Amino acid sequence: MSFKLVIPARFASSRLPGKPLLDIAGKPMLQRVYERALQCGAEEVIVATDEARIVEAVQAFGGDVVMTSAAHPSGTDRIAEVAAIKGWENDTIVVNLQGDEPLMPPSLVQQVAHDLANDPDASIATLCTPIELATEFENPNCVKVVFDRHQRALYFSRSAIPYDRDGEGENLGYRHLGMYAFRVGFLQAYTTTTPCPIEVLEKL
């Protein structure tokens, strides 16, 4: 199995400006993420950014970086631009690893790429994990996902879904892990679509 890995990194975060370059034990957070990404077995590991300071930081630690447009509304759009610049084929698998995940286990990156590679009918794959605490289930910052018996995602929401009417369920639900694997052809098509009202409402 072969795949590419792109780390979208923004400097102008509204909640924590400059977050990718925050120091973690003597290294920028983004460098920690990049070094973890190198352990995943990807053919290429690339940082995608619109910020010169991030470009300089990545080049300083010897990483591969691509400058992208500042107009992108999301990291997904930034990755699509990298795929176009690099000329990746439509069936190429690319994994999106967030630039603020320095502790993400390489095994999870490999899993999401493997899941997509082994399902020819799927265009995108992502991961989730069981929610064990009621406080997490009710927290809107914890994105929940509901899926069918074939592990096909049906809905993502900040709300507490599914609703357990009788209070007898053993599982509170599943938390979505914000990591995706895309087939490049689908990625290019997806990023040209207009966000639907629910996507805008939920900020997902």
From TrEMBL:
Its main location: membrane. Keywords: Nucleotidyltransferase, Transferase. One of its GO terms (biological process) is carbohydrate derivative biosynthetic process. The keyword Ligase does not apply. It is found in: Membrane. The keyword DNA damage does not apply. Its EC number is 2.7.7.38. GO terms for molecular function: 3-deoxy-manno-octulosonate cytidylyltransferase activity. It catalyses: 3-deoxy-alpha-D-manno-oct-2-ulosonate + CTP = CMP-3-deoxy-beta-D-manno-octulosonate + diphosphate. Coiled coil: none annotated. Pathway: Nucleotide-sugar biosynthesis; CMP-3-deoxy-D-manno-octulosonate biosynthesis; CMP-3-deoxy-D-manno-octulosonate from 3-deoxy-D-manno-octulosonate and CTP: step 1/1. GO terms for cellular component: cytosol; membrane. Pfam families: CTP_transf_3. InterPro entries: Cytidylyl_trans, KdsB, Nucleotide-diphossugar_trans. Belongs to the KdsB family. This is 3-deoxy-manno-octulosonate cytidylyltransferase. It comes from Cyprideis torosa.
